[in-house]
Amino acid sequence: MARSVGKTRAKRLVLALVVLGIAVFAVQGGEYGTWDLVRQRTRRERLESRIDSLTRLVDSLERRKRAIRTDAATQERIAREEFGMVKGERELLYRFAEP
Questions:
Q1: pLDDT-derived band of residue 3, with 50, 70 and 90 as boundaries?
Q2: Where are the domains of the chain?
Q3: Residue 93 zone, left/alpha/beta (φ > 0; ψ -120 to 50; rest)
Q4: pLDDT reported for residue 5
Q5: How many CB atoms lie within 10 A of CB 74?
Q6: Contact, 52 vs 63, CB < 8 A?
Q7: What tens digit of pLDDT does each residue of 9-19 get?
Q8: Which of 36, 83, 56, 27 has its CA nearest to residue 75?
Q9: How many other β-carbons are positioned within 10 Å of the β-carbon of residue 33?
Q10: What is the pLDDT of residues 40-90, one digit of tens each?
C-alpha cells in the first residue's frame, strides 16, 4: 500500500511538471513568446523615435526649400555665400588665398 501511494505521488509530480512545462512554453515559447514581444515593442519604440526625427528633418527641409524659392533675402544670401556673387558694380569681392 505504501508503494502505491509513492507511485501515485510520483505520477502526480510528473503530471504537475508536464502541466507546468506546457504552461511555461505557452507563455514563453513559440514565435510570439513573451521575450519576442518585448523585443518587438522595443524595436517599435526605436522606429517610432526615428520616424519622428526624420519627420522633423523633412519639415525643416521643406521650410528651407520654400524660403529658397520665395524669399529674396534667402536667395541673395545663398548667391553671395555659395556662388561668390556681388550686388551691382559698387561691391567688390575679395578672396584671400593661403600662401
A1: low
A2: 1-30, 32-84
A3: beta
A4: 66
A5: 14
A6: no
A7: 888 888 899 88
A8: 83
A9: 15
A10: 999 999 999 999 999 999 999 999 999 999 999 999 999 988 888 888 778
